[in-house]
Amino acid sequence: MKNIAIITGASSGIGKEFVRQIDGGYVGKVDEIWVIARNSEKLEALKGNTFSKLRVFSADLAIEDELSDFLTALKEENPRVQVLVNSAGWGKFSDVSNSSLAELENMVDVNVQALVEMCYQVLPYLVRGSKIINISSSAAFMPLPGSAVYAASKAFVLSFSRALNHELKDVDITVTAVCPTGVRTNFFNKAGNQSGVKNIVDSFGITDAFTVVREALEDAEQGKDLSIPTLSGWLMYYSSKLLPYQAMMAIQDYLKNNYSEEENTSAAQA
Ligand SMILES: NC(=O)c1ccc[n+]([C@@H]2O[C@H](COP(=O)([O-])OP(=O)(O)OC[C@H]3O[C@@H](n4cnc5c(N)ncnc54)[C@H](OP(=O)(O)O)[C@@H]3O)[C@@H](O)[C@H]2O)c1
Hints:
alpha/beta, two-stranded parallel ribbon, 9 strands
């Protein structure tokens, strides 16, 4: 029976970095890495750069039945899944009234519905010691006007992951919710900045996918249910526990209106 890792959103950003680090760090522990995203060319391009065999499943996670090849492969090959990473997701920085309903629903379908389905379908193939790593966000810590559905979807991922982690304690399977602040990836190309939320993200600092993934894998290894890779993320986490949500949203308004990208860029270059 083969040992595998499964990574959604592997064509780009954080998911792609998970492929790289799991491939390097799980040598001998996984025989194959199964990667899932829509862009099959980008997934195919990962082949040849990994020690483990790569298996590509091109699927739009927002569309019912697109996972059928993947589910059939699971059933037929009955692998031991050592690690499942749910990284596929996207967000938009615009008010609800300025978004299309299709966009908002798609965000829920990919960030929430598909993540639940992946956990559910893969569960029978996990073994003692297996890890589930779900990519949430620091946006999960508080309501986020200007990206309301995205933040709510990530709050779902955080809450769901913690509860599932507790449910699986007795079988020694852990679930880690990863809550990064801004990460340098293609995420922001799609998110835009119509509502000014990117100003909030920038004011907390942008980190890199390498750091996020390294911390996530270490935290998952230690069985932690929460992974926050930056100090600014922890600051946000504890502030959201101490301050009423109205105060957090007032701080967000201040940052949206007063953050200057120009100043930040010149400070970073100095
Ligand atoms: N970057 C940040 O600042 C940040 C901060 C906190 C949390 N996050 C979270 O981190 C995760 C990864 O994002 P990223 O920063 O790495 O952005 P990214 O570079 O844009 O990667 C997003 C990944 O999700 C996949 N994806 C999106 N929609 C999909 C769909 N309908 N079906 C299948 N796959 C889909 C994309 O693949 P295809 O386009 O090939 O389908 C891509 O591989 C997301 O869940 C995001 O919410 C990001």
